[in-house]
Amino acid sequence: MSKETPNLQLSAAENPNLAEVKVETVRAFEGSFLHVEKDLVRLPDGKQVSREYIKHPGAVVILPLFEDGTVLLERQFRYPLDRVFLEFPAGKIDAGEDHLECAKRELKEETGYTASDWSFVCTIHNAIAYSDEHLDIYLAKGLQAGEAQLDAEEFLETFRAPVSQVLEWVRAGQITDVKTVIGAFWLEKIMRGEWVV
């Protein structure tokens, strides 16, 4: 096995020996929010197969960190899994919307809080086998409480918890939402001064 550091993320043009090349696309389903594409693709060995995947506009995740080391979380029912999840605030990016502005909007709408200090943390791809969705994670500090402005179809509760408690809930399997798990690990590193954003 080579000891060289691999190229971590290469485009199809940069890595043709692994690339799958689109031959044609058919929209299999068009919803108001999500779309399903069914593409015919050519594999590196020349064979053709179909690939079905969900088109998603992308989303933002906010890590609202208070000066006392607590974070703001939400309890929200998620229909596909028929249960309430503990999550960081998050939301879909509207067409043409700046990602940071989306994060500010979502934090205000869902929780009522605004923040004076924003930092980009990272981008994650949470479902690479069947969706093009990406989530941009932002750290929000300098938090000020206000009035939430939930959408008509949105029901959630907010609460504060220490980051150490959030990590314990992750360890115990009580937090399983991937954006919240990754956000908690980032917060731990940031608060220890090990990772800088």
Topology overview:
Elements: E1 21-30, E2 35-42, E3 48-55, E4 59-64, E5 70-78, E6 83-87, E7 90-92, H1 99-111, E8 114-124, E9 135-144, E10 156-162, H2 163-171, H3 178-191
Parallel strand pairs: 4-9
Antiparallel strand pairs: 1-2, 2-3, 4-7, 5-6, 5-10, 8-9
Domain Nudix hydrolase: 54-183
Pfam families: NUDIX
Family: Belongs to the Nudix hydrolase family. NudK subfamily.
Explain briefly what this protein structure is.
Its cofactor is Mg(2+). Belongs to the Nudix hydrolase family. NudK subfamily. The protein has three helices and ten strands; from the N terminus they run βββββββαβββαα.
Keywords, separated by commas or semicolons:
Nucleoside Triphosphate Pyrophosphohydrolase, 197 residues, NUDIX_hydrolase_dom, four-stranded mixed beta sheet, three-stranded antiparallel beta sheet, GDP-mannose pyrophosphatase, alpha+beta
